[in-house]
Amino acid sequence: MAINYGDCDGKVVGKVERTVGLIYDETMCKHDTPDGEDHPECPDRIRVIWEKLQLAGVSQRCVVLGSSKAEDKHLQLVHTKDHVNLVKTLSTKQKDYRRNKIASQLNSIYLNGSSSEAAYLAAGSVVKLAEKVAQGELDSGFAIVRPPGHHAETDEAMGFCLFNNVAVAASYLLNERPDLGVNKILIVDWDVHHGNGTQKMFWKDPRVLFFSVHRHEYGSFYPAGDDGDYDMVGEGLGEGFNINVPWDQGRCGDADYLAAWDHILIPVAREFNPDIILLSAGFDAAIGDPLGGCRVTPYGYSVMLKKLMEFAHGKIVMALEGGYNLDSIAKSSLACVEVLLEDKEIQASSEAYPFESTWRVIQAVRKRLCAYWPSLADELSWKLINQKVPTPIILISSSDSETEDDAQGLLDQMSKLSIENHQVDTARTSWRADLAKVDVWYASFGSNMWKPRFLCYIQGGLVEGMKKACVGSMDKSPPKEIVWKTFPHRLFFGRESSPSWGVGGVGFANPLANHNDQIHMCLYRITLEQFNDVLCQENCLNVDTDLPVIDLAGLQLAENKGAIIPEAVSNSWYGSVVCLGKECDIPILTMTCTLSVFEKFKSGEIHLRPPAKAYANTFIRGLVEGGRFSAEEAEAYIDKAASTPL
Ligand code: X5A
Ligand code: ZN
């Protein structure tokens, strides 16, 4: 350890600077999109971090190490031979089209001639750093690597990740280096996405305590599904050694993350007493991140890291995962390395308090895990969770959006805004109560005509053929009545693919009536609250919104005008709510594309396309079970709609 002496009130005080390793290699910047297209996971991510550390004079105080290629036998500790070979043979000699084909069969992956080399360097560098920290040559370190790793599964690349860098390093220490005496590893994953790959790799392994805090939103946030939920606690000997903190909304910030630290992670880490900590350090929960929609500040990251330094004698290996706002990730990284160097006194406290939903999640996690970790057993005090909430609400889209918000701009906004949180909270709960009192007919004309599929939107879940589970409505009561009706609108199929059904068109109705056409619809009597939740799910929006997409005034307007385009869905696939009339004095609503999008279908600017097989099957089942059609008639109806030009 290097010791700096500073002068303080005439007395000489010793300040210990810890030995911090950094790994950065420009070669990892060569992994890029094959066609030069923009992508959030871009080469500049690691460049800006490295430049920031240099400019701040911080890298100069660290031990800078060269990168190193992972060995196949180490990769195979967590990956299959086939997967390692696949990545290995993405060599420069192969033609782009072959790589593009491989990439297109994977979820959120691009590949070029340098991807293989970068992936080997990313994994190898984390292994190297972990080894040096474990053996005491370094106190801690940061591997500034890409591609990231935590989504990579044993046998599959996904979510911008090729090899699971952190998992390879953990497995290397445990299985290949008994001499280093690492028997227990805590992996902390603060990337905004769930570390699905890492979770699975150590699912039954009590030597690895995996902790991931991430946006989950009932399974709708990437990587989607139930894996990231808090009841996924591990199995067999590993039961209790997997901890997920699944946020059910975006916008979480320092206060929310620190509450998860103070009331889950830190007490558990104290009980587990790790020999080393590996940190899946994605910075996409940072304020201003275009994918994350959360608001963690560099200060927040530095406190979270500082709190981890009380364990394992401060042996912490940070590995970069996600993080897509270049400015945010550079600042957050700098704040973290400064903490590793131990030259930052952290005392500033945040003004904000956690969201109510944050306490709900934390309490659920504690309850689920207290059998394994006694320190989680106590009920949190009423006083703690009912602290006044002075955090201003910023009305920005917090979804997986492509817009890049300037972090400083947001901070400025935050300090100016002073909307009382409880006003919004009240609005949020009361719109549901109000709209739950009003019934509408939801007229479905696609796969929703099959009741079990429609029920996914009410009760959550999925039916055969669907690629992704639905969240369901907040009100899970089934429809009160079902009737079938025929309307004078055109049915057609278009767009390339859908999240639910994969490649193939999905059904639309022309927004305007046309007396030459007929569309068969299944009408479900549900509440206007449920209709809102269906509308959100059809448009890939979060159902847990502060305001309804269509309120009573909107319903009135739709009845009067025949159709409305609610602001929140105006740019989505089903951007138009059409009123088809009334049945028993209850308005009949359907959702379809807007008129302007319909014009684009007509002109060919947006493609018509026959439905995906699984989608068409569901559609047919609905029509047949509705009792009006034979399977042949249903098929003919679809074929005609799919083959007749608009
Ligand atoms: C490492 C990471 C995110 C993938 C998002 C895909 N991956 N939509 O942040
Ligand atoms: Zn991420």
Automatic annotation (TrEMBL):
Domain Histone deacetylase positions: 39-339
Pfam families: Hist_deacetyl
Source species taxonomy: Eukaryota, Viridiplantae, Streptophyta, Embryophyta, Tracheophyta
PANTHER family linked to this entry: HISTONE DEACETYLASE 18-RELATED, HISTONE DEACETYLASE HDAC1-RELATED
UniProt keyword Nucleotide-binding, yes or no: no
Record protein name field: Histone deacetylase 5
InterPro entries: HDACs (IPR000286), His_deacetylse_dom (IPR023801), His_deacetylse_dom_sf (IPR037138), Ureohydrolase_dom_sf (IPR023696)
Organism: Camelina sativa (False flax)
UniProt keyword terms in alphabetical order: Chromatin regulator, Repressor
